[in-house]
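Retro notes - structure team

What went well: the batch runner handled both jobs without manual restarts.
What didn't: labels got mixed up in the shared folder, which is why I'm recording both outputs here explicitly, each with its sequence directly above its tokens.

Job 1
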Amino acid sequence: MHAVVRSYSGAGARQLFDILQERKADVEATLRKVPGLVSYTLLGTDDGGMSVTVCTDKAGADESVKVARDWIQKNASNTHASPPVVAQGPVIVQIT
């Protein structure tokens, strides 16, 4: 399995996460289409938020980054949020 974490902060990040919360059903439906999706978590922080995506392989994790970027561009570009800091790698332990 492979995971990717996208962290959003700075100008526009809080507004972006307000939109993500308002449109969470659409966000969920969009991310469910990612091949090999195992789990997706979206959480708000004081200055923005982050998402954690786990997929069966790196290709799925890479696709999730593209899908998220496209969704934001289409639905929340007016926030002018900075691109996220992206960290990814193989999953070592996952507890469900």
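Job 2
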Amino acid sequence: MASLETKFAGLTLKNPLVAGSSGLTNSLNKIKDLEKAGVGAVVLKSLFEEQIESHSEKLSLSSDYPEAIDYINTYVKMNHVGNYLDLIRSAKAACNIPIIASINCYKLSQWTEFAKNIEAAGADAIELNIFLLNAGEFPDNYPEEFHQNVVRELKKTIHIPIIVKMGKTISNLPGLVKKLKALGTNGVVLFNRFYQPDIDIDKEEIVSGPVFSNPSDFNDTLRWTAIVSGKVPEFDIACSHGVHSWEDAIKGILAGASAIQLCSMLYQKGPGIVGDVLISMEKWMKQHRYKNLSEFKGKLNYTNIASPALYERVQFMKYFSNFKQ
């Protein structure tokens, strides 16, 4: 029987399927359901500094007393963080799979403070859910420096594995991943899915765009997984953003991924899809006579194919030449 066991960011996973950070991972019962369905690990819903501050601000508006406002802000923060740490502890006590915490902050001091508490609560690793979009307000190299500064400070603070969830807007992704690896980062996730804006042309206002990813989104994820895997060897990558089938999981591993994060597919098809994906992956491995993932992991990454330019091609001439009018 084929083995689906994998190593990711210093963790041993029984299989490469990881439940991504979302509303599906924000309670103990949901996490237990995901473990029962067969996932190899769970990333908890992110703890957002901005969300905590927004909640504090709303409550503070009801008081005119500075002392009361300070109390409210402290209470809200402790309550949010306390609930999150309780979830980590209860999940670790009830589950046998790795529990990965996730945080999103914009102040460096909060990254380190949250991370220390998360490690003390027993999380197996921490995912840095970095939402950073440079809309021209910062120097060109600001996003890259921000990633490095956060990792550099956290490596001084905590000892559990650090995983960075990357955005697609980084100008030199392989270069930044190399630097993060040198700083001691244990793995990266490609990619973060930003909030998608849309415009309601009747009301003439900004509204929320599609919540879930599309299968076509996976092509970019695949391209960059293959390129980063080839250019930054012996470094763990998890594919995310656009994974909608067992075939995508196989493709991601062939491109060099060690793990596959699932989110939209779990929302749309339910946790039961995990078992179907695992069965199909095992069947494919048996057909191709692979006994374990390491036998084909990275087989088609940037370095291991005869024409690496296939991953760099961005023009459409060859693509459209296949279609006849």
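One thing worth noting from job 2: The chain is about 45% helix and 15% strand.
We'll revisit the folder naming next retro.
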